[in-house]
């Protein structure tokens, strides 16, 4: 590991440096983080946990979100190279580990886009805007359009694409604020009946059920660093932007969940329809204007989901493209950035293809049962993303302890001890969340908690594990093959003196 990597001088040398355009300022970074992190599709899923969902949301915000944001604020400012987490893991653990980690991180997003986001968008459109049906030509067409519009918005240049993320962030915050205030107004007029049978007391069963989805909801603040060399001043802007976006995200999860539970009994909240079903109820306070307002909210909801997927495609595709451009995954050609757009068009198209395949597979998983598909596919996305942090967090620790020479414009409070404490807390949460996502019900059985698998997931354990473990196993195989192919190509090209990131090994 070389120590000559500059983090404060000119951008690092790599094959795509000449086509990157600096277009992200502090406001843009904040908006991108908000657009990526606030997940409309998880609000209803979190609320299915009942009153204790609000309790655990607050606990995890305090003991996970804050230390997590501190870790990435310091690291993101100190190592602002394009590719973000790919570069960090490579510096600490080497190129093969970085390539496998990036694959897990990246593939989460096309899986999520073609899975839970597309299904929730279609369910919302079908129920509130225009009837699509389930498994119909209209249903397939809508989901395909949803996927590929998100991909197209990621292909456009970042100086234009950032406004799509900004619009998505604004729509999310506005919609959640309107819903929360309307729910309060509804409760004042009709009573907060949802609270009658809701207990906020935390339980072990609730903890184990909610941890994976809550962690998935709160991670992603490092995502803008994937475009680190497209920021004007990452050393100053990243820490401030992460602090602001983390605060907004915590409020945008906790307050709507509380509002939803206050007016809708917990046993009536569903993961796929929770938010919009709650909106249907509380919007009745607007009388004759309720139906058009509900339809407008549904359109905003779908647009927010679309821009959410787009924001993740923008950042995660850059990570995967940088891994390929650096010779870490199959072919460097996959990491080519368009000379005019400055975007990794080939990786964008690959994401679209993966999202499409996964959407088609998910449609067949439960014979078109959207609610069951939504939950299982969301868990697959949760699993692959959380697994990537099992390498990213140790990499941050190694960079902190082994690279004291790198200037750090921002420091976690209490220096190295504070950094290690934050990393330990975050890693412990990630371990619990990863295990619970991969093997739901196992920890419950250890604690003597009854767990009816089919009642919870709508599919058998065999089908669930085949889909989740099969996806992880397939990705690992693809990743190992990709690393091996890239290494062989580099061996052949080595005589020509072609390399990757200067000082990154």
TrEMBL record:
It is a multi-pass membrane protein. This is APC family permease. It holds the Pfam family AA_permease_2. The chain crosses the membrane at residues 53-73, 140-158, 170-188, 200-221, 242-264, 293-315, 349-367, 373-399, 419-438, 466-486. Gene3D superfamilies: Amino acid/polyamine transporter I. Keywords: Cell membrane, Membrane, Transmembrane, Transmembrane helix, Transport. The keyword Transport applies. It is found in: Cell membrane. Its main location: membrane. The keyword Membrane applies.
């Amino acid at each position: 590991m070389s120590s000559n990597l500059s983090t404060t001088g000119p951008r690092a040398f790599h094959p795509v440096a000449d086509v990157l355009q600096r277009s992200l300022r502090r406001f843009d970074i904040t908006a991108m983080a908000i657009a990526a992190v606030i997940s409309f599709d998880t609000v209803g899923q979190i609320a299915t946990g009942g009153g204790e969902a609000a309790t655990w949301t607050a606990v995890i915000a305090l003991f996970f979100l804050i230390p997590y944001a501190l870790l990435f604020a310091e690291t993101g400012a100190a190592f602002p190279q394009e590719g973000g987490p790919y570069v960090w893991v490579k510096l600490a653990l080497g190129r093969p580990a970085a390539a496998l980690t990036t694959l897990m991180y990246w593939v989460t997003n096309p899986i999520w886009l073609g899975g839970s986001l597309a299904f929730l968008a279609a369910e919302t459109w079908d129920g509130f805007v225009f009837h699509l049906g389930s498994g119909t030509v209209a249903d397939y067409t809508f989901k395909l359009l949803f996927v590929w519009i998100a991909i197209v918005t990621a292909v456009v240049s970042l100086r234009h694409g950032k406004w799509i993320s900004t619009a998505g962030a604004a729509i999310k915050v506005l919609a959640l604020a309107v819903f929360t205030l309307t729910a309060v107004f509804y409760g004042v007029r009709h009573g907060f009946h949802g609270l009658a049978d809701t207990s906020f007391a935390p339980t072990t069963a609730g903890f184990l059920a909610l941890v994976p989805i809550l962690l998935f909801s709160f991670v992603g603040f490092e995502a803008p660093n994937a475009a680190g060399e497209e920021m004007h001043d990452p050393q100053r802007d990243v820490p401030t932007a992460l602090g602001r976006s983390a605060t907004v995200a915590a409020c945008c999860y906790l307050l709507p969940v509380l509002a939803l539970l206050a007016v809708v009994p917990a046993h009536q909240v569903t993961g796929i329809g929770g938010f919009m079903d709650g909106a249907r109820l509380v919007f009745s306070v607007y009388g004759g204007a309720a139906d058009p307002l509900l339809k407008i909210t549904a359109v905003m909801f779908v647009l927010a989901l679309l821009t959410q997927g787009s924001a993740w495609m923008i950042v995660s595709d850059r990570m995967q493209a940088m891994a390929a451009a650096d010779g870490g995954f199959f072919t460097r050609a996959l990491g080519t950035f368009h000379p005019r757009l400055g975007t990794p068009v080939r990786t964008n198209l690959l994401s679209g293809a993966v999202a499409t395949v996964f959407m088609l597979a998910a449609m067949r998983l439960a014979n078109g049962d959207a609610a069951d598909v939504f939950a299982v596919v969301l868990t697959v996305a949760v699993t692959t993303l959380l697994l990537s942090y099992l390498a990213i967090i140790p990499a941050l620790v190694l960079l902190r302890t082994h690279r004291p020479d790198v200037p750090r414009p921002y420091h976690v409070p209490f220096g190295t001890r504070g950094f290690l404490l934050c990393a330990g807390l975050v890693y412990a949460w990630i371990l619990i969340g990863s295990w619970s996502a991969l093997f739901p019900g196992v920890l419950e059985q250890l604690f003597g908690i009854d767990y009816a698998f089919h009642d919870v997931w709508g599919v058998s354990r065999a089908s669930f594990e085949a889909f989740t473990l099969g996806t992880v196993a397939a990705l690992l195989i693809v990743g190992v093959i990709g690393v091996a192919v890239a290494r062989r190509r580099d061996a052949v090209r080595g005589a020509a003196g072609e390399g990757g990131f200067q000082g990154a090994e």
